[in-house]
Model the fold of this input.
Amino acid sequence: MSEEIRLMLVSEAEKMRKAAYAPYSGFSVGAALLCKNGNIYKGVNIENSSFGAGICAERSAFCTAISAGEKDFEAIAVAGGKSFGKITDYCPPCGICRQFMTEFCGGDFKIILSDGKNIREYDLSFLAPFGFDKNRFGI
Ligand code: THU
Done:
């Protein structure tokens, strides 16, 4: 992926934070998911007064993309921080999101994180090693 696309994905993820619905945690997350065909789908965290019913920005982006018929994914940028502040640290995907990605992405799927200044990029295989993989069991 070019540096230009990487920066654009990070910028889209950061911009999306405004649309987060996070009244309980006060922590707003945005995600921008790049498909192999070049399409981009965005997501935000959407919380619920029944706390366990909330969804993370990453899964929200994947659900939108998959609902639109997308099947092949290249990378996701994630940016999160206190709702009324700037980003000050990296926001790596939670365990459920890593498992969710494992369902739809190969180990070389890229996860791009920003702390507001610097950008880090990880392979899914690094962030979710030895995850439960349907291909292992043919399910
Ligand atoms: N959250 C995300 O959306 N993505 C992450 O990678 C980590 C956490 C959300 C869940 C919850 O709405 C809020 O951030 C605080 O945990």
Observations:
- The chain has a mean pLDDT of 97.
- The beta strands are 27-35, 40-44, 73-82, 110-114, 119-123.
